[in-house]
Amino acid sequence: RSSWLLLAPLLTPPVPVITAPPSSLCPEGAHRFQWIRNLVPEFGISSSHVKVLSSPAEFYELLKVQIKTAKQRVVMASLYLGTGLLEQDLVDCLEETLEKSLQAKGSPNLRVSILLDYTRGSRGRKNSRTMLIPLLQRFPEQVRVSLFHTPNLRGLLRLLIPARFNETIGLQHIKVYLFDDNVILSGANLSDLYFTNRQDRYVLLQDSPEIADFFTELVDAIGDVSLQLQRDDTVQMMEGMVHPYQGDKMAYCELANQRVMEVINSARTRQQLLHAKTLHSSQQGSSLLSQQSSQASGGLKPKPDTWIYPLIQMKPFGIQIDEMVTETLLTEAERDARIYLTTGYFNLTQAYMDLILGTRAEYRILLASPEVNGFFGAKGVAGAIPAAYVYIEHQFYSEVCYLHQQERVQLQEYSRAGWTFHAKGLWLYLAGSDLPCLTLIGSPNFGYRSVHRDLEAQVVIVTENKALQQQLHQEQEQLYLCSGVVSSATFEQPNRYVKLWVKLVTPLIKNFF
Known about the structure:
CATH topology of the largest domain: Endonuclease, Chain A
Number of helices: 17
Helix content: 25-40%
């Protein structure tokens, strides 16, 4: 019955196939989602280690504090690093922390690894690269800057497509910011807008070494198949690596798949062993193992009431775990369950649209009104993108009305003067519950690009803890409070007029934005 069994063959060979429908595995409460650990590592943590942030300013201040207090590692993956004063402050914080590490007794322990997209990070004369070169020159042994270049932008295509437009082919879109054992997951980039008035989502996982190790290894794996920024602003591949656009495309993608799946599967195995040991020691009472682990950690760890599952989507490399899990969550959502789904760019894949329109749960979909779309007021062709999103939204709304689903599927538009909207993810409320027990948070937008073109990562957070559920509920409410419900009248407003050429072009280009 479950769509899970139909989806299973899509997995790349190294991923184990689940042997029973998810709904029959753990039918009660939050544990019903434990089927996800058949695909990816499961990290059990205490809900007291999870903090949900709400504003760009809070996110920015946290980044600075975490950089300043880091002792072992700073790992940051983003689409790009901006070139303004706020971004320069972040770079200065990094320099200060690296300097302190250099002056400490013995060899410097701090390692900084930054992963950005090559095309976006190279845009303009002053760019992400020029911002980071001083760090590479001053701390060559401690700093690594990797620039991912999609293997799909190559040959004649690479020569002909101009800057900015070349970013439509594929990007490094993952946003993870980690400092020692603290991990921030978000959809926000390292740019002044995201630190001031561009609304996104942000969650801090504190004192979570296993999760930090996983994302460090993931960023390292992508970094290894990326171009390495040099001190003279040139780039080169690591020795023995296939070049992303000069080398054989299939060989490059196979190597990248191997590196990333190795990270996922080794972490999954580690967590299974850890889970088995924990289970065994709890059954044996106060065993030697639990004594040793409590001594090593300075005390007994609280029993997990929250579980983190990292979902990776890298279709160019044949990895589509996020897509599979998201589709399964939408398929399995029961009647009277509520799903609050948000995206800054409403351009759902056909599969996601079909599931929303054809399943039983109630949906509240939050999207950007044209005025808070990141492309609003842009010059040239990009200025028409908000109108294209209005057209896509109108088409979907018309389909909802045609199927008489307006009660079950509701669209809401975020609107806030002087702000733009970039939040993405979902919150799942089980039938009869006033609080969500699951959220997805990270970089994917649920659109074609996220599924097929870009490198994406998000986490499933499942919790039984009421206080954390309340935090997630408040986060959802705060975002949806700034919205109005979409109706037929919405599209009759003068600012919703879509020019004929935009209507004609949108179906041809919608897979690129």
